[in-house]
UniProtKB/TrEMBL annotation:
Residues 24-278 form the EAL domain. This is Phytochrome-like protein cph2. It comes from Andreesenia angusta. The chain holds residues 749 to 1026 of 1026 of the full protein.
């Protein structure tokens, strides 16, 4: 009967949910150990000055090689780390590792190239966050003016954890702030001028259909114009084609990042790449 079917369906769903929860618990447990077992790594993706074609920045992107599952995407485990509070330990490891790598590369001749790291809102909940960053800079020898912190609009404008003050304080020590995935959240235009930021990153979703969608061209053009008038630098992310590069160049976008130039690479591979040795 239909009643039985309904019941079966319900049982099936709840079993599936239990299974999912169990998987989550297992993954969380292994994530706890991932840090100690050295399963986390940073890959770095070049950011290019659109006029000169020169390397101007590197974005650190975390990778986890799970002993059984292989590579787990940050899109999967970062939310998990955020839910469990593990993001604080992981986030600190990310900042320290990226700063150590940046300082090393700067000494080896990669002068003036920024190092960008992604942050989660949870990291701002600790009142000592900015002090921790300062001490990492000291420990690693990384120059503050070459460190960039990437946050989303909703983080940058979050009212609950003093985020704006923390970001302003960090900017006073010459650390830069970039607004990631710009344009994808529902923050009102009236608040854009309040962003405590140096740079805006145009989200990949707008860049993706530049060649085919006139409306996306209009949006990208408007973001670049708005950013310029508000004194923000602009970088486009997810750039994959020559056509996209040409359009962004014609609109005076400052920088680009994407597979067109280079995928995120482990340090030893990046060091061998053409862009790195240009
Ligand atoms: P995001 O910061 O917006 O990073 C950009 C994502 O786009 C990266 O995915 C990158 O590999 C990918 N990408 C770059 N160029 C292209 C392109 O031309 N085409 C396409 N299709 N994709 C491109 P990834 O590495 O999987 O990272 C996903 C997200 O995970 C990041 O988005 C960021 O929000 C988060 N994430 C990564 N590393 C960290 C970290 O260390 N800490 C925190 N809190 N979040 C991180
Ligand atoms: Mg980012
Ligand atoms: Mg992004
Ligand atoms: Mg993103």
């Amino acid at each position: 009967s239909s009643k039985d079917n309904g019941k079966n369906r319900f049982t099936f769903c709840s079993l599936e949910m239990k299974h999912e929860t169990l998987e989550k618990v297992k993954l969380t447990n292994s994530l706890y150990r991932a840090l100690e077992r050295d399963e986390l790594a940073l890959h770095y993706q070049p950011q290019i000055d659109i006029r000169s074609g020169k390397l101007v920045g590197l974005e650190a992107l975390i990778r986890w090689t799970h002993p059984e599952h292989g590579i787990v995407s940050p899109g999967v485990f970062i939310p998990l780390a955020e839910q469990t509070g593990l993001i604080n330990a992981i986030g600190e490891w990310v900042i320290a590792t990226a700063c150590r790598q940046g300082a090393y590369w700067h000494k080896r001749g990669l002068e003036g190239v920024r190092m960008a790291v992604n942050l989660s809102v949870e990291q701002f909940k600790s009142s000592s966050f900015s002090d921790r960053i300062e001490s990492i800079l000291l420990d690693t020898g990384m120059s503050p003016e070459l460190l960039e912190l990437e946050v989303t609009e909703s983080i940058a404008l979050d009212d609950s954890y003093d985020v704006v003050n923390t970001l302003e304080k960090l900017r006073e020590s010459n650390i830069m702030v970039a607004i990631d995935d710009f344009g994808t959240e529902y923050s009102s235009l009236s608040r854009i001028k309040l962003l405590p930021a140096d740079r805006i990153k145009i989200d990949r979703q707008f860049v993706e259909s530049l060649a085919v969608d006139k409306r996306d061209r209009a949006v990208v053009r408007a973001i670049i114009e708005l950013a310029r008038n508000l004194d923000f630098k602009v970088i486009a992310e997810g750039v994959e084609t020559e056509e996209q590069v040409e359009f962004l160049k014609s609109q005076n976008c400052d920088e680009i990042q994407g597979y067109y130039y280079c995928r995120p690479l482990p340090p030893e591979e990046l060091e061998k790449s053409e862009i790195f040795n240009h």
